[in-house]
Amino acid sequence: VGLKEELLKSIWHAFTALDLDRSGKVLSHNLCTVLNVPHDPVALEEHFRDDDEGPVSNQGYMPYLNKFILEKVQGNFDKVEFNRMCWTLCAKKNLSKSPLLISDEDAFKVWVIFNFLSEDKYPLIIVPEEIEYLLKKITEAMGAGWQQEQFDHYKIALNTSREGLSAWELIDLIGSGQFSKGMDRQTVSMAINEVFNELILDVLKQGYMLKKGHKRKNWMERWFVLKPNIISYYVSEDLKDKKGDIILDGNCCVEALPDKDGKKCLFLIKCLDKTFEISASDKKKKQEWIQAIQSTVNLLRAGSPPPHKEARQKRKELRQKLLAEQEELERQMKELQAANENKQKELETVRKQLEAAAARAAEEEKKRLQTQVELQDRFSLELEREKMVRQKMEEQVAQKSSELEQYLQRVRELEEMYKQLQEALEDEKQARQDEETVRKLQARLLEEETAKRAELEKWHLQQQQTIQMTEAEKQELENQRMMKEQALQVAMEQLKQLELERKEALEQYEEVKKKLETAANNTKSWKDKVAHHEGLIRLIEPGSKNPHLITNWGPAAFTEAELEERQRSWKGKKATSE
């Protein structure tokens, strides 16, 4: 059904531009040719003969088109060639004669995009929401900023006169340059081509990369084109010399590879029968391709359509939902209005009944005054009964008035809810537009900052290399001088440290010597008493009597063995520091 709808939109333009009596046969023949539908020229002549027995004569052209052409379409045809044939038949009659800022080829692409985005009802139109979507895509592709305020003014003017634009009015709008001021024809043409590739040709991503051959194992630069179920690669971006395809399905996967064999930014595409090694130009392009291919594989696994087709369907569903809600509110408003009118009629009827009852009561009162005295009691009873009836009627009027006030209050509440719903929808729409604008601005600023940072880092690296080449020898001599100074400083510090340690050891030695003399005097008196306990108790006696070294300042703090040990330790530290 989707393919048939797409074909019908293009055929509708060609059908309405031709005189069917004279050109229906030509149109049918061309459709069978470009759609690869087998047909018999003799049978075609039979269909379009002048009498009333042919299928076209008694059924009309559209039933014939569905039965003999569209139902036989298999999908194995060139979509661009088909659209170009329909465009050729209708463009000359409908295309504006005033000069446009876009070429005929660009106008053709805008016409095809119109058929993709237009509503599924005839005559075909594109609604303001889809016009805004298309203009935003073209503006983004040109690298320009979106003028939301300008489009809002245009949208207000458009909504006051019609529901949307025809294909030819859309071509005039884009060709007038109203939303592409300051851009040259080439920039606008490239932007239209980029949007055409994405929306019509289902090109999700394209660009140059290196591919490793399966047989010769050499690396060749190819122009890659990613579509929803295939990656095609060509010799160049003109797409004339196709070298091969990578068929994608739910079993495919893509993996990043480390740099090897002098190639950087490598990644791998694994399919059931083959594996492809590809090298991107930089890390950013590598990551973008990996994400794009993985997203495509995920869509294939989920059985989802391409992102732009899914987004178009969601926008249509949202419009249908909002239209249904608006129609429901209008229906409720009409029901409340009808109920209000009924209550007004009921209230008017009750008022007339009260007036009639009052008139009758006055007439009866006049008659009672004229009757005889003997009838006064009977008329008094009737008067009381009439008062009771009047009271009941007044209570009914009050009740009806209260119900009417409740209905009016409900009507006001629904009107307020309707206004609040419209305001909420406008706020949500404005917030999404603001978010999209800020996101695009941030992305553009980030790209500019990345480019500037890369350029500054390149300049800084060149300066550093130049400085390092001139200062390398100087730095080496300076390092040697610093190492010698550090070694001298360490030796001086060690010498000072030894001097301090020697003084401290001398002081400790004097102190210990005094303590030993005191302890010897204190223990001389009782040393004999414990002599027989020599096996159990060993008295603390002075240390070794080995001769001490004598220096210029007196007895040394260390023995020769200890001094040799310290010298070995100093030499080890000095060798480590050097």
Automatic annotation (TrEMBL):
<dbReference type="Pfam" id="PF25530">
    <property type="entry name" value="EF-hand_SWAP70_N"/>
</dbReference>
<dbReference type="InterPro" id="IPR057836">
    <property type="entry name" value="EF-hand_SWAP70_N"/>
</dbReference>
<keyword id="KW-0966">Cell projection</keyword>
<keyword id="KW-0963">Cytoplasm</keyword>
<feature type="domain" description="PH">
    <location>
        <begin position="202"/>
        <end position="298"/>
    </location>
</feature>
<keyword id="KW-1003">Cell membrane</keyword>
<comment type="function">
    <text>Phosphatidylinositol 3,4,5-trisphosphate-dependent guanine nucleotide exchange factor (GEF) which, independently of RAS, transduces signals from tyrosine kinase receptors to RAC. It also mediates signaling of membrane ruffling. Regulates the actin cytoskeleton as an effector or adapter protein in response to agonist stimulated phosphatidylinositol (3,4)-bisphosphate production and cell protrusion.</text>
</comment>
<dbReference type="GO" id="GO:0005634">
    <property type="term" value="C:nucleus"/>
</dbReference>
<protein>
    <recommendedName>
        <fullName>Switch-associated protein 70</fullName>
    </recommendedName>
</protein>
<feature type="coiled-coil region">
    <location>
        <begin position="308"/>
        <end position="529"/>
    </location>
</feature>
<dbReference type="GO" id="GO:0003677">
    <property type="term" value="F:DNA binding"/>
</dbReference>
<keyword id="KW-0597">Phosphoprotein</keyword>
<dbReference type="Pfam" id="PF00169">
    <property type="entry name" value="PH"/>
</dbReference>
<dbReference type="GO" id="GO:0005737">
    <property type="term" value="C:cytoplasm"/>
</dbReference>
<dbReference type="InterPro" id="IPR001849">
    <property type="entry name" value="PH_domain"/>
</dbReference>
<keyword id="KW-0539">Nucleus</keyword>
<dbReference type="GO" id="GO:0005886">
    <property type="term" value="C:plasma membrane"/>
</dbReference>
<dbReference type="GO" id="GO:0030027">
    <property type="term" value="C:lamellipodium"/>
</dbReference>
<dbReference type="InterPro" id="IPR011993">
    <property type="entry name" value="PH-like_dom_sf"/>
</dbReference>
<keyword id="KW-0472">Membrane</keyword>
<comment type="subunit">
    <text>The SWAP complex consists of NPM1, NCL, PARP1 and SWAP70.</text>
</comment>
<dbReference type="InterPro" id="IPR057837">
    <property type="entry name" value="PH_SWAP70"/>
</dbReference>
<keyword id="KW-0175">Coiled coil</keyword>
<keyword id="KW-0238">DNA-binding</keyword>
